[in-house]
Amino acid sequence: MLPIVKGNRIKELDQQFAVSKNITSVDLMEQASDAFSNWFCSNFEDRSLSVYVFCGSGNNGGDGLAIARLLDQKGYSVTVVYFEDVQLCSEDYQSNFNRIPESVTLVKADAWDGEIAEGSIIIDAVFGVGLNRAIGGAIHNIIDLLNSSSAIRLAVDLPTGLPAESVVDGLAFHADFTLTFQFPKLSLLFPEHIKFVGELHLLDIGIDDEFLEKFQGNSFYIRKQDILGRHKSFHRFSHKGDFGRVLLIGGAPGKLGAVSLSSYAALRTGSGLVFCAPEFEEPLEIQFPYEEIMVYQTRANADLSVMDAIGIGPGWGNAIDPDYFLSIMVRFDKPMVIDADALNLLAQNPKLIKYVPENSILTPHLKEFERLVGKMEDHSERIESASLFAVENKVILVLKGAHTLIALPDGRRLFNSSGNQYMATAGSGDVLTGMITSFLGQGYTPENAAICGVYQHGLAGEMASVAKRRGMIASDIIEKIPDTFIDLGIK
Ligand SMILES: NC(=O)C1=CN([C@@H]2O[C@H](COP(=O)(O)OP(=O)(O)OC[C@H]3O[C@@H](n4cnc5c(N)ncnc54)[C@H](O)[C@@H]3O)[C@@H](O)[C@H]2O)[C@@H](O)CC1
Ligand SMILES: [K+]
Q: Which intervals hold domain YjeF C-terminal (predicted)?
């Protein structure tokens, strides 16, 4: 998995990497700027475009100067607006300042007329990971102006104003696209920052994963290549028992949809047998929209040990006796998936938490999580608190949202890269519960079940949204689950 290196270690990482490859830091800056300009050329093919590059005094500004030179070479008409006298800037900035060709218009910010031609592109290379205070003065005024411009806005590494690990305080650049080097900086994944980050792209600047691992902390980014190796493969003599027998507990009168979606998602994720236990007087009379789903009774002394996995909570309602929930956890006594109304029961009865089987997977959205642990200031606090919860209670906490966080009991924090805004639709979370329960029932470790479930749920959403966009609904996501296996090369 890709390490998310902390901002304050990046300078040291760059230096050590350059030494290990026998290159200079300005060579590494060139590699980064080259990756940026290549991305730029393949996404904005029209060479008659005007490009404005705004450069701060550090190495982010140095990147900007190198990018300006490279884009000028490719035929765009480039203007650089810079803020600081060159002798006050970083060494690599100075090298690149001296290499700016005459064909680039160079103008100091205090002499700039503030005009940006219609249809231009703005590149923000004011500050990156070196930001150490809120934006003020002339830079504040210019960022404000850029944010109100109708031009397309791109940020180099980080939108100016975003600290690498915490939530923005004051003004920041509003990018339509953020092109970050090698790995995402943590704050690019915060929901509060979506409006500043826009579309996030990682640019490979040649630093290999093995080298990055020397600088790894506890945060990682889940990419496509991390998924295949976590899957089990089945052979042609496998029978439905090998694919697991799972039970989804949930659904109450008038609320059968959620648990039906979870059950159907489990079937599409590969479960051999899917049972559902709805909270009805006469559950056996329930007709599910999918006839492959079988009804199970969990009341009294029903044998839960025959199940390979249980997912509990979707549409369960708010009239469940906490002792009944307790009896299910105690009787099953293996990792289970806990969602929705089952999470609310835990929030209302905190004494139950210690009975949650070790390594269970809890899947709250932000509100459910706050019900569980209390109100939080921002996402940075939420991440810490989710991780603490996972470690203290020896569970996996999946905090759903853009870049869903998987907090593991050993303290690692994994951030998802798949999915998009169209997945914010009713029932999307119920689908995830079914998918994770299904993998758990197929014999995956809880960690792998959570990772594969979260990643493929996002991928299925991306695939479904190609044709459906904002019209996508939860069952469209389910229909695309099989395609995610094909896309990832999973048998
Ligand atoms: N592997 C990588 O990540 C690479 C990083 N490079 C670039 O280097 C950047 C980091 O460079 P630096 O460490 O020089 O940091 P920055 O360029 O982000 O900014 C540092 C400078 O800005 C000043 N500053 C910070 N906040 C300010 C504020 N609010 N108002 C006024 N001045 C402020 C600092 O005192 C310092 O002089 C990265 O973001 C990236 O763009 C690339 O050049 C090469 C590879
Ligand atoms: K920037």
A: 223-488
